[in-house]
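Handout, section B. The chain below has 81 residues.
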Amino acid sequence: MHKPSVAELRPVVHPAGVKDRRSGEHWAGRLYMREISLRCDRYLVNTRITPNQLTYVMTLCGVLAAPALLVPGIWGPSSGW
């Protein structure tokens, strides 16, 4: 199967009016969910990966990345807390 173009995916993934509505989406959410994810979808649409599987992988990445916040020195010298 061919890899669909962004122009082919956009009307399916983001129907008219979705990006224009004021739903309280944060700017980073709009960037990620509406622009970056659309480009990733091009590569995933013809694979056997399901949306739920991708959600589980992304959740696992977030949980595994959380301990990085506990490493001393990442944010500079101790703030004295």
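Note. The chain has one domain: 6-70. Compare this with the example in section A.
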